[in-house]
Amino acid sequence: MGPNGRICAKPAQDPDEFERLYDEHSGRLLGVAYRVLGDSALAQDVVQDVFLGLWRDPTRFDATRGPIGHYLRMVARSRALDVLRESQVAGRANDRLRSFARAEEGPADLKPAVAAEQHARSVVVRRALMRLPDVQREAIVLAYWGGMTAEEIAVNCSTPVGTVKSRIRLGVLKLRQQCTPALDDVSVAA
Fold first, then answer.
1. How far is it, in rounded angstroms, from Cα 5 to Cα 61?
2. 15-89: which CATH number, 3.40.50.11690, 3.40.50.300, 3.30.70.270, 1.10.1740.10?
3. pLDDT tens string 81-140
4. I need a surface site. Which of 70, 79, 140, 175 has the fewest CB within 10 A?
């Protein structure tokens, strides 16, 4: 970086300068993106996008308008807000699609065979779930019915993320082993 704060050479021509910028600013950018998104994986993607944009077109940064750190944080916040808006739009579209599909199906209570099969399936799954070890059952319930990520479960249960992921994976495998034959029987009976 030159004395006036401008990038001296294109980052593609000066990888050391680019690496220094990344090391100096990536942590703050991750914090900015995480505060907007509340999701560390999405925040990391935003940071990558910001630096990729700088790598591809370093002329976007104008030192006369302020320091590079301010510029990078502004770009990260803007990109994080874009990602948040995109996910909200996608979520609303999925909600509309689900409500349309439910309207097309009609309520299950108007179709006794469907309602009976749904009830029988839920009984099979609940029984199999109760046979799991407590820690696996808790992880699966929090993930699938609680809507929590493995990271959120890890914080909630004071357990390492890898352990939570293993519990979920092992629990799902056991559920699949226990439920598959019983659910096949339910489908045949219905």
1. 10
2. 1.10.1740.10
3. 988 888 777 777 677 667 666 655 555 555 777 777 777 888 888 888 888 898 988 888
4. 70
